[in-house]
Design goal:
The complex is a heterodimer of chains A (480) and B (133). Chain A has 480 residues and is of the alpha+beta class. Chain A contains 16 helices and 19 strands. In chain A, a hairpin with a 6-residue loop joins strand 4 and strand 5. With 133 residues, chain B is α+β, with helices and mostly antiparallel strands. Classes of the chains: A alpha+beta (480), B alpha+beta (133).
Chain lengths: 480, 133
């Protein structure tokens, strides 16, 4: 796969590298990251995405890119709604609206240190997690439809969380256009017992401390300061999203035969945005996205309640306000100037985070002057970051940036290097408490299985996609 | 080796081989169980009915594995084999299941169509499926 440098940390995969490419590939990476992306076939996937009908400007890849299924993880693709563009369920992924939520607090490390072991133990008990575990909320079909329509606001209306949470959440806690009637019975069955649960795999809840501030003005707007304790949670739409994507990839695979659309990988199955299938998928995707927002909202409530119980102060008194809640697997209709004309685009972000720059009208008043907060979880035991969107990000990659460190090693390779219990021991030796339901599985998510998150966020900054605001160090990890 | 686990940077895949399609599909179910257990699955101790439809053999196998995963999620009984009658667009019969399993591998979220393959070989049939984990 040929590439050529087109700017700092910016590489182009030229047209013609894969038959049918309509736009070039554009990869934001340093030379080592680019070489890894070539080795693990992610570059080929970037070129494959460039064949989607209606794609504009480029098929983009963020610095945390790695081999995915269909789309590379770290991929961004925008299609023109009014000029034959398509939507691809595989371009969103199975964990629809998987994302990250960050709670800040007024607590310092000294305030929390005497309680840390008990906090990790009680969060482990109170936060439902792991395979097959039931969530905090047991919903009947009507209630679940309400969650799908109203997202975090449904949970708030039922007494959990704070009113201020909604304005500090992407889409104010609910993506418009959700249609519970477009969601299959099986997706309802899978979701009914799972709202308010963390899940397994790379999902986690972490107690962290702000170690370093990089941008004082943005940090002040985000209410972050050095030495302050925060809680980060990473989870998604659980079985609802998995089932919606399963149903819709199958449906779009059939539609492609009828529409005579050809793509290089069946998981890129897609359909015209003006088709009934696309309308149904968008409604179902938004419903699953809203389930994910509600899920993280409920978990944040439980986290506040646990801190209140263990520390002995109210969550309000501890200032446990939301910084932001971002999605990193989603397709959204956004408006951009392309080739001199304002267009409605369907922006697919698969393992990439929206990062609106300063002044964007969709941002809450408190963030409009500085830009959108972006929450980037590190790998277990390494730093996480808060970033902010930039002006130039709009023209770079439709206001998108990275979503995490990005895997560098397969699960099999990671397990060969050391066992899960050894990973736990090494993390605890380094001062990170670990509470995991299956410690034996920790090796699959070990820090060495991921890229260096610091290089990833530095590359995003060097490329102009986002700027660093704060670095957070983990104190305790709760894993499913 | 009738099945093997395929490495993937973020996810995990399986490859199965067999002399005929019903055996191939059964091996794929067994491979899926091996991923979940991170161990060789035991022989089945019970069975549940299954029936799926799709437009081609690849999508048919994907649909069968979706049913196997749903059986595990909804009943905690893990399919480890299948006895099926398979046409080009339908597969029907039973999934052989085991109870009281210990999960030793990653949680499988879904069956993908990425590089999905069911193909004839010189010795019989080969299938390849990647899972989202």
């Amino acid at each position: 796969m040929k590439t050529r440098s087109v700017g700092p940390y910016e590489w182009e995969v030229p047209l013609g590298e894969v038959a049918g490419m309509r736009v070039p590939g554009r990869v934001f990476a340093d030379a080592d990251m680019l070489a890894k992306a070539r080795d693990d076939r992610a570059l080929e996937q970037v070129a494959n995405v460039a064949t989607l009908p209606g794609i504009v400007r480029a098929s983009y890849a963020m610095p945390d890119i790695h081999w995915g299924y269909g789309f590379a993880v770290g991929g961004v693709a925008a299609t023109d709604v009014d000029a034959g563009g398509v939507i691809s369920p595989g371009g969103v992924g199975f964990d629809i609206c998987c994302g990250v939520r960050l709670l800040r607090s007024d607590l310092t490390l000294d305030d929390v240190r005497p309680h840390l072991v008990e906090l990790a133990r009680r969060l482990g008990e109170r936060i439902p997690r792991g395979v097959g575990t039931k969530g905090m909320l047991r919903l009947d079909r009507e209630e679940l439809a309400g969650v799908m329509r109203d997202g975090a606001a449904w949970v708030l209306a039922h007494g959990l969380g704070w009113e201020s949470d909604l304005e500090r959440c992407e889409d104010h806690g609910a993506l418009p256009g959700a249609d519970p009637d477009a969601v299959s019975d099986r997706a309802f069955d899978r979701g009914a017992p799972q709202c308010g649960s963390l899940g397994a795999g790379n999902h986690f809840l972490e107690i962290q401390v702000v170690e370093e501030i990089h941008d004082a003005a943005a940090a002040e707007a985000f209410e972050l300061s050095a030495g302050q304790v925060c809680v980060m949670m990473h989870t998604g739409s659980r079985g609802v999203g998995h089932q919606v994507c399963t149903d819709e990839v199958k449906s779009f695979d059939k539609l492609m035969h009828r529409s005579k659309i050809s793509v290089p990988d069946r998981q890129l199955a897609c359909g015209p945005l003006d088709s009934p299938e696309a309308e149904r998928y968008f409604g179902a995707m938004a419903a699953a996205a809203n389930f994910a927002r509600a899920n993280r909202h409920a978990l944040a409530h439980e986290t506040r309640a646990t801190f209140a119980e263990v520390v002995g102060r109210t969550a309000d008194d501890m200032g446990m306000r939301l910084v932001y809640d971002v999605a990193h697997n989603l397709a959204k209709i956004e408006r951009y100037l392309v080739d001199g004309r304002e267009r409605n685009l369907c922006v697919h972000r698969k393992g990439a985070t929206r990062a609106f720059g300063p002044g964007h009208p969709e941002l809450a008043d408190r963030y409009r002057a500085v830009g959108q907060p972006v929450i980037v979880p590190g790998s277990m035991g390494t730093s996480s970051y808060v970033l902010v969107g930039t002006d130039e990000g709009r023209d770079k990659a439709f206001w998108s940036t990275c979503h995490g460190a990005g895997r560098a090693m397969s699960r099999t390779q990671a397990k060969k290097r050391m066992g899960g219990y050894q990973v736990k021991a090494e993390l605890e030796e380094a001062g990170v408490l670990v509470n995991a339901t299956h410690p034996g599985l920790l090796a699959e998510e070990a820090p060495y299985a991921y890229k260096d998150v610091a290089r990833v966020v530095d590359t995003c900054e060097g490329a102009g996609l986002s700027r660093k605001v704060a670095r957070l160090r983990p104190l305790a990890v709760i894993k499913g | 080796m009738p099945y093997r686990i395929l490495d993937h940077t973020a996810d995990i895949g399986i490859e199965a081989t067999a002399p005929d399609i019903p055996s191939l599909f059964s091996e794929a179910v067994r491979a899926c169980a091996a991923v979940i257990l991170d161990a060789e699955p035991a022989q089945p101790r019970g069975s549940v009915p299954v029936a799926v439809e799709a437009d081609d053999l690849g999508a048919l196998l994907a649909a069968l594995l979706v049913e196997a995963l749903w059986t595990f999620e909804s009943t905690s009984r893990l399919p480890v084999a299948a006895e099926l009658e398979v046409s080009s667009t339908t597969a029907a019969g039973t999934l052989g299941v085991v109870d009281d399993v210990t999960i030793g591998g990653p949680a499988i979220k879904a069956v993908t169509y990425h590089q999905l393959l069911v193909e004839r070989t010189a010795d019989g049939w080969r299938a390849q499926v990647f899972f989202d984990v």
